[in-house]
Amino acid sequence: MFDIYGFVDIYEIKTPGTPLLKYDRAHDNYYWSTEISEALAQLEKYIYWASDNRTELQDVIKKEKNIEVRIIKPRGVLIIGSSDQLANEKERDDFKILRSSLKNIDIILYDEIFHSLVNLKNGCKGLQHKYN
Question: Rounded to whole angstroms, how far apart are CA atoms 51 and 74?
Fold first, then answer.
């Protein structure tokens, strides 16, 4: 996918029920589930491949879709899981720490997308009344 400026972003989409974290009793820490670890590794490979083959990929998109895109440091986005899987404060805190440690990838939960859309819709309603 590409943003409004023509920069390519790479998305990996899993189901809302995909497990987010596992618990390590020995260290009292949560860590990425196998499914997230695999998705992160796959996204990193896509980012590497897109960066390494950017000229060829830009040409293919131009030829097949007639769209000019730029591939400069692509960002990966993993859409996965939901916040109701984070059952306690420790789990939520560890999720935030793990999420913020990622260099090239953003993790977005399904309910975060939903709440963003609701807020956008409600904000647009307010703007609509304001300018009518």
Answer: 7
Is 107 within the bounds of a domain? yes
Q: Which is it for strands 21-24 and 29-32: parallel, antiparallel or unpaired?
A: antiparallel
Q: Is position 1 within any domain? A: no
User: What confidence tens digit (pLDDT) does each residue in 72-101 have?
Assistant: 888 999 999 999 999 999 999 999 999 999
Contact between 30 and 94 (Cβ < 8 Å)? yes
Q: Is 77 exposed, middle or buried (0-12, 13-18, 19+ CB in 10 A)?
A: middle
Q: Using CA atoms, how far apart are residues 99 and 106, in angstroms rounded to an integer?
A: 7
Q: Which candidate, 76, 80, 71, places its Cα nearest to that of 104?
A: 76
Number of domains the chain is built from: 1
So what's the pLDDT on residue 115?
87
Mean pLDDT of 1-15: 86
- What global pTM score does this model have? 0.83
Residue 2 resides in a domain: no
pLDDT score recorded for residue 132:
42
In a domain, 32, yes or no: yes
Per the structure, the complete domain to which residue 41 belongs is given by: 7-131
